[in-house]
Amino acid sequence: MTNFRHFRSLSFRQSKNVPKCRDLVIAIFVRRLYSYQMKKSANLGRRSFVMLGSLITAGIFAPRELRAIAKGALFTENKIYVCTPCGLDCDKLEFDKPGTCPVCAMPLIEKGATAAVSGPGSARFPEGKTSVQFPFELLANGIFFQIQVNNKGPLTFALDTGSFNSIVASEIVDQLGIQTGATSKGLGSGTSFTTSQISSLDFLLPGDLTLSTKRGAAISLGNLSALIARRFDGILGFDVLGQLVVQIDYQRRMITLHDPAHFEYKGVGTVMPFTFWSNYDPQIEGEILIADQSPMPVKIALDTGAGGTTLTTPFVTAHRLTESMKTLQSPDVGAGGGESVKWEGRGHQLRIGSLVIDRPLFALSTDTVGSLAHAEFDLNLGGNILRRFTTIIDYPGKRLILEPNSDFHKPFASDASGLVLKAEGPEHKTFIVRALVPNSPATEAGVQVGDIITAIDGSSSGKYALWEFEEELKKSGRVVELKLRRGQTSFKRKLKLQSLL
Question: What is the pTM assigned to this prediction?
Answer without folding.
Answer: 0.76
